[in-house]
UniProtKB/TrEMBL annotation:
Domain of life: Bacteria
Similarity section: Belongs to the FlgI family.
Reported function: Assembles around the rod to form the L-ring and probably protects the motor/basal body from shearing forces during rotation.
Single GO term (MF): structural molecule activity
Annotated PANTHER family: FLAGELLAR P-RING PERIPLASMIC PROTEIN FLGI, FLAGELLAR P-RING PROTEIN
Keyword Signal: yes
Signal peptide: 1-24
One GO cellular component, as annotated: outer membrane-bounded periplasmic space
Protein name (Swiss-Prot/TrEMBL): Flagellar P-ring protein
Keywords: Bacterial flagellum, Cell projection, Cilium, Flagellum, Signal
GO biological process, one term: bacterial-type flagellum-dependent cell motility
Gene behind the chain: flgI
Complexes and interactors: The basal body constitutes a major portion of the flagellar organelle and consists of four rings (L,P,S, and M) mounted on a central rod.
Organism encoding this protein: Pseudoduganella aquatica
């Protein structure tokens, strides 16, 4: 298992990749077509045939009620005072996502999760379960043998590896019963929705589409939605969208952001993060960041230009003694590397980053997860 200091080192080492220029991305990776989406489905059902690992009926009365209701629908009447002792039955929730443009008769994978106190769903069979959408309509029916993975013997057969046994999966275990109406085929316009709102990226997408298909084909409604004129024929529209999705676009640089996991010490930042001059004291650690300018003038009559370079001096001291001096651009990566070199804990780094943000010297959004 990696220690927090090693995690910090790995995060700091990965920062060298951030200096690379932004690469062009496919439009399908930056945006989605409005209306082309999945719809979540959910259903309540029973898994039977368990090997004594089902719900304990004294603590899960809803399992008994469900079984009695099912038997009554089949014409089997049980005495009201009869108490069923069910060890091979478990009440479960069945979830899946209905893909876009799915038609009746197509198959879907489903996830089966115990909602009672069943010890295991391994070897069980899911009875026919209606899958409903948010509107309460049934869009699919699920049934089949539940597969629970992660159960097997280690090398030598001396021990058993047991995974999470209360959740299983049925591959192709649900059949689509109803299609979802889609507005993609209406009119001669489609809308592209960017995954992240960004006015610069939206304008670049519009420019790339118009350069490819002609002026006036696309225009932005706001920082996320772009309206595009598409062919009226469904066949031509599908071909047009396929070409559109593979269009190469250079996205705008993201806003400066630092994300830190307070539990593991992982730190991720983008290339827009910068520091201002600051001095911080935390426990036995002292961090000082200062920036000075170096002016390089060309020789007389050389025709060159004066270049001003901003250099940073980052001093980190522990118990009053200097530990490391980093010179270069004022980058947060240098601070992370230096703190890692003296064995700073994730809590130390978190406190220092929060102090830098509060003082206004960290020019980025700090998000702690």
């Amino acid at each position: 298992m990696k220690t927090p200091s090693k995690l910090l080192a790995a995060a700091a080492a990965a920062l060298c990749l951030l200096a690379q220029p932004v690469q062009a991305e496919r439009l399908k990776d930056l945006a989605s077509v409005a209306g082309v989406r999945q719809n979540q489905l959910m259903g309540y059902g029973l898994v039977i045939g368990l090997d004594g690992t089902g719900d304990q009926t004294t603590q899960t009365p809803f399992t008994v009620q469900t079984v009695m209701s099912m038997l009554q629908q089949m014409g089997i009447t049980l005495p009201a005072a009869n108490t069923l002792q069910l060890k091979n039955v478990a009440a479960v929730m069945v979830t899946t996502s209905l893909p876009a443009f799915a038609q009746p008769g197509q198959l879907m994978d489903v996830t089966v999760s115990s909602m009672g106190n069943a010890k295991s769903l391994r070897g069980g069979t899911l009875l026919m379960t209606p899958l409903k959408g948010a509107d309460g309509q049934v869009y699919g029916m699920a049934q089949g043998n539940v597969l629970v993975g992660g159960v097997g013997a280690q090398s030598g057969g001396t021990s058993v590896v047991v995974n999470h046994l209360s959740v299983g999966r049925i591959s192709g275990g649900a059949t689509v019963e109803r299609a979802v109406a889609n507005s993609l085929g209406e009119g001669n316009q489609i809308k592209l929705e960017l995954n992240t709102t960004d006015f610069s990226t939206a304008s670049r997408v519009v420019e790339a589409i118009n350069d490819k298909f002609g002026a006036g084909i696309a225009y932005a409604l706001d920082g996320r939605v772009i309206r595009v004129q598409a062919p009226s024929s469904s066949d031509q529209r599908v071909s047009f969208i396929g070409t559109l999705e593979n269009l190469q676009v250079n996205p705008a640089q993201m806003a400066a952001k630092v994300i830190m996991n307070a539990r593991t010490g992982s730190v991720v930042m983008n290339q827009a993060v910068a520091l201002e001059t600051c001095a911080i004291s935390h426990g036995n650690l002292t961090v000082s960041v200062s920036t000075d300018a170096q002016v390089s003038q060309p020789g007389p009559l050389s025709g060159g230009q004066t270049v001003v370079t901003q250099n940073a001096n980052i001093d980190i001291k522990k118990d009053g003694g200097k530990v490391m001096l980093v010179k270069g651009g004022a980058q947060l990566a240098d601070v992370v590397k230096a703190l890692n070199a003296i064995g700073a804990t994730p809590q130390d780094l978190l406190a220092i980053l929060q102090a830098m943000k509060a003082a206004g010297s960290l020019r980025a959004e700090l998000e702690i997860i």
